[in-house]
């Protein structure tokens, strides 16, 4: 019996030596047999973990992209707000800055103080909305025939206490210098009207009283004289053109003012 077992062992050893892969396959098969079989629930859980890992990576990428998009949107909005504040409040040609500066010059004018009293307020275009108290200031930025940047503006003034039934329509013009890029006033004028205090704002009866030239530069006055001379030479009629108050300023009465 012992001799038979010894012979079988020798035969197996010889086969393993002749075929070394047999030992490897035998050991793997033996190990697989030793491992317990997974249940269907365990196999399903393993697949879920694998899927969750992939979806988690996708969610992280999507979250990062969303954060970048949000930060970019906030920065763009912040830049737009800063540009708007600079363009309106700080820049020389900003509508708010020009409005405040010109209103100070108008208040300091002796003729205006005599006509409207010592308390003058300014406001924008007429509106019938009870909620909209901040009225827009009509203005236009454009390039003239000489290639210079121009800014025109129109707003209204009156006595803050409304004790004096008068309304002033302010018209002003600025030009940007090509050499210094500074903005200089060409003129600030105020057309004064007497109004019916019983009428609604924007619908009251107006009667022209006169014009106050708060500021007129020599250069602009020269341009006006040249323009008048050109009109006389070309025999233009004054019918239907400009105002008829007799002021030399009427020949350059802008046609693009918003009523």
UniProtKB/TrEMBL annotation:
Cellular compartments annotated: Mitochondrion inner membrane; Mitochondrion membrane
Function comment: Essential component of the TIM23 complex, a complex that mediates the translocation of transit peptide-containing proteins across the mitochondrial inner membrane.
Assembly description: Component of the TIM23 complex.
InterPro entries for this protein: Tim21, Tim21_IMS_sf
BP-aspect Gene Ontology terms: protein import into mitochondrial matrix
Keywords for the protein's UniProt record, in alphabetical order: Membrane, Mitochondrion, Mitochondrion inner membrane, Protein transport, Transit peptide, Translocation, Transmembrane, Transmembrane helix, Transport
Taxonomic path: Eukaryota, Fungi, Fungi incertae sedis, Zoopagomycota, Kickxellomycotina
Transmembrane segments: 68-86
Annotated source species: Coemansia spiralis
Protein's name according to its UniProt entry: Mitochondrial import inner membrane translocase subunit Tim21
Mode of membrane association: Single-pass membrane protein
Domain of life of the organism encoding this protein: Eukaryota
A GO CC term assigned to this protein in UniProt: TIM23 mitochondrial import inner membrane translocase complex
Keyword Protein biosynthesis applies: no
Similarity comment: family membership: Belongs to the TIM21 family.
